Amino acid sequence: MFSQKKPYSAVTVTVERLTSEAIPENDLSGIPDLVEVINLQDTGPTEASRALRKKLKYGNLHRQLRALTLLDGLIQNAGPRFQRTFADEPLLERLRFCGTAELSDPEVRKKCAELFRSWAADYKNVRGMERVASLYKELPKRKKVVTQERSKVIKETENPFGEDDDEPASPAGPSSRRQPSLSGPQPTGTVQSFSYTSKDKKKKDKDKKGKKSKPFNLEAEKEQMKAHIAEASLAATNLMNTLQTINREQERISENATAVQRFEACKQLRRKILRYIYHVESEQWLGGLLHANDELVTALMTFEQLDRSIDADSDSDDEVAEQAHLYRMATEKAKGKEPGSPGSAEAATSAMAGLRFSPSPPPQPPRPSAPPRPSAASKPSLTQSRRVESSDDEDDEEEDENDPFADRNAVNLR
């Protein structure tokens, strides 16, 4: 179990500091410090690789661009040992994803393309850099992309005559301008939550079928259709913008109330757009309807992909590491502070407390045993020890009878 613990030392702390929003995107002044802490320990390249990959995976746009800048700077300056050991498969897979996936930000894809071409030209024949040099011609190998066939939310909204047609209009959403359904007056007293039986459900299904057979009048619904097309484009844009502002290192997508609200609005609008596509045959309107549907599909699938990234991303370390990440987020959120905020004093203290220069210090050789020291009871006093020493010296001097300079041969002048 302890072998699965990932190192967290000065390398990770330095990467966190150098990828903050306070540092410009192409600033390289922190590279020497990062190279120094990496070279101080055996696991430095591996830990730097993992820390940068996490920024590419969970960080916002600025942190992703900073991670790419730091990675390029390390490749050029950290030396051969770093070049041979940093390029593990999870990092390479994340780089492939950032450079090719549609979910990746266009600026990130552009920077990846520039770096991939540069690495291919500079490190083609460098030992240990062969896989990095070939990134420009590779696609993600094991990426589990959420396609429309596999997307759960797309399947939920495929039926244009779904349950949303019978739901009362929501005053908070932009799609609330809808005519009341044909299901009779709403009760004004206490909600009878247990009066909905299977017979009522069958009756409601029959009403839906009858409602579907109702002829579609394009002229009568033209204005409402135009409004829904505009709302669909706006809702998709709002959802995409919200997703870009969420820091996935600190918060899960489905836990953000604004993102979930806009996600549900997009789901309802897509059902309406599909209903119009089902009925409208005029090419004058089909183009706008199809475009609106594409925007909604992109926004909905982006939400689903980013929210389930722990399951879908192919560069995850292991289940234990990902569960530890979720547990840390939940624990810090329960304490009422931002998880891992680099600016807080507590985070800095905890980060410094976790500093270490090697994952496991080598065992120290046993020290030579010291000579036995006499106990306090047997230890003579200072005066006594001096007397013993002087008496020993006298004994030694008395033993030498042929010494002309002995004290017994001294001349008494008094």
From TrEMBL:
<feature type="compositionally biased region" description="Basic residues">
    <location>
        <begin position="200"/>
        <end position="214"/>
    </location>
</feature>
<dbReference type="InterPro" id="IPR044103">
    <property type="entry name" value="GAT_LSB5"/>
</dbReference>
<dbReference type="GO" id="GO:0043130">
    <property type="term" value="F:ubiquitin binding"/>
</dbReference>
<comment type="subunit">
    <text>Component of the ESCRT-0 complex composed of HSE1 and VPS27.</text>
</comment>
<dbReference type="InterPro" id="IPR004152">
    <property type="entry name" value="GAT_dom"/>
</dbReference>
<dbReference type="GO" id="GO:0006897">
    <property type="term" value="P:endocytosis"/>
</dbReference>
<dbReference type="InterPro" id="IPR045007">
    <property type="entry name" value="LSB5"/>
</dbReference>
<keyword id="KW-0653">Protein transport</keyword>
<feature type="compositionally biased region" description="Basic and acidic residues">
    <location>
        <begin position="146"/>
        <end position="158"/>
    </location>
</feature>
<dbReference type="GO" id="GO:0015031">
    <property type="term" value="P:protein transport"/>
</dbReference>
<protein>
    <recommendedName>
        <fullName>VHS domain-containing protein</fullName>
    </recommendedName>
</protein>
<dbReference type="GO" id="GO:0030479">
    <property type="term" value="C:actin cortical patch"/>
</dbReference>
<feature type="compositionally biased region" description="Pro residues">
    <location>
        <begin position="359"/>
        <end position="374"/>
    </location>
</feature>
<dbReference type="InterPro" id="IPR008942">
    <property type="entry name" value="ENTH_VHS"/>
</dbReference>
<dbReference type="GO" id="GO:0007034">
    <property type="term" value="P:vacuolar transport"/>
</dbReference>
<dbReference type="InterPro" id="IPR002014">
    <property type="entry name" value="VHS_dom"/>
</dbReference>
<feature type="region of interest" description="Disordered">
    <location>
        <begin position="146"/>
        <end position="222"/>
    </location>
</feature>
<feature type="domain" description="GAT">
    <location>
        <begin position="220"/>
        <end position="308"/>
    </location>
</feature>
<feature type="compositionally biased region" description="Polar residues">
    <location>
        <begin position="176"/>
        <end position="197"/>
    </location>
</feature>
<feature type="compositionally biased region" description="Acidic residues">
    <location>
        <begin position="391"/>
        <end position="404"/>
    </location>
</feature>
<feature type="region of interest" description="Disordered">
    <location>
        <begin position="331"/>
        <end position="414"/>
    </location>
</feature>
<dbReference type="InterPro" id="IPR038425">
    <property type="entry name" value="GAT_sf"/>
</dbReference>
<dbReference type="GO" id="GO:0007015">
    <property type="term" value="P:actin filament organization"/>
</dbReference>
<dbReference type="Pfam" id="PF00790">
    <property type="entry name" value="VHS"/>
</dbReference>
<feature type="domain" description="VHS">
    <location>
        <begin position="18"/>
        <end position="147"/>
    </location>
</feature>
<dbReference type="GO" id="GO:0035091">
    <property type="term" value="F:phosphatidylinositol binding"/>
</dbReference>
<dbReference type="Pfam" id="PF03127">
    <property type="entry name" value="GAT"/>
</dbReference>
<dbReference type="GO" id="GO:0051666">
    <property type="term" value="P:actin cortical patch localization"/>
</dbReference>
<keyword id="KW-0813">Transport</keyword>
